[in-house]
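Hi everyone, sorry if this is the wrong subforum. Our group has a chain we'd like a structural model of before ordering constructs, and none of us has done structure prediction before. Sequence below.
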Amino acid sequence: MPDLNIPCKLFCLFFGEVVTPHYGRKEQEMNYEDTLKEIVLGDERFVVMTAENRSAVRNIPAALGDRFIDVGIAEQSMVGIAAGLALRGRIPVVHALSAFLTMRAFEFIRTDTGIAGLPIKLVGAFPGFLSEANGPTHQAIEDIALMRGIPAMEVFCPSDEEDMIIGLEAILKSPGPSYIRFNDLEASVEHDRDFHTGRAEVISRGEDITILAYGTLFREADRAVSLLEAEGKSVGLINLRTLKPIDEETIIKAAMQTSLLVTVEDHLLAGGLFSILGEIFLRHNVTCRVLPFGLDERWFRPAMLQDILEYEGLTGEKIADKILKESEKYAEYIKV
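Answer:
Right subforum, don't worry. Here is the predicted structure as tokens:
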């Protein structure tokens, strides 16, 4: 039985650094910080900012000098300052904990960034289950709903660090505001390097089941695909990459070609991918059986990542098991 009663965390803010375990990380030639540094050093318009959250950018200050700004624990002020810089031709890349960036500073993001359509890039750290042992105050499980509600705001939810690196330059150089759900997990698949905002990455296609996933839970979805295929199922897997704009064409095609569509996300069902599918299907007059995996009207129990997945029924094994049961239930219904 996993220990779900961790009293406080592993997740300490100490002199501007976040100390947290990283599951499934590996050494690679370029990480997020390396890629960001390369991009911003090549274009003087970029300014990197943080609200005392340097875990992903701790070596950036020395490289950027006065183009790096740490405002302290002041997310609202950071977004306001970023807006002023953007109005003067800069492209601010701001970093903060997702929960505080998207909620505490929401009005500033909506008003200063969204209404003006400024190219401010919001990087949310420890979103969804990556917040791990933190309680509800530090859990960003409604961030996608909030950010996609702002007109012209892009929402990039990479499935791992490799995926994030592949899409980073396109997102940072897009002309409008963007929200990035930071994810430094190890990749479970070799990603297509041809990244386009609003285009999903189709890993495989299936006639029985198609799983739509993004972010942290993509690797669990990938594991579920392997288990389902071992049971003789034809299974597709789609890494959505950006949830706004979202690849409607690929989603509709999957809905038409598969018997069961599955959504997997570490977000509230309301306002997340499950809701997005409903909007797409209503807009295009499409009907499809959908099985959602996510959080329904509640926050998750604080624990380490693997324990969270076990408790919430979101390991690859538990996802596959529930999908098989849903498929069998539908097969029985068809017989009747």
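For your construct planning: The longest strand covers residues 260-268. The chain has two domains: 12-181, 201-335.
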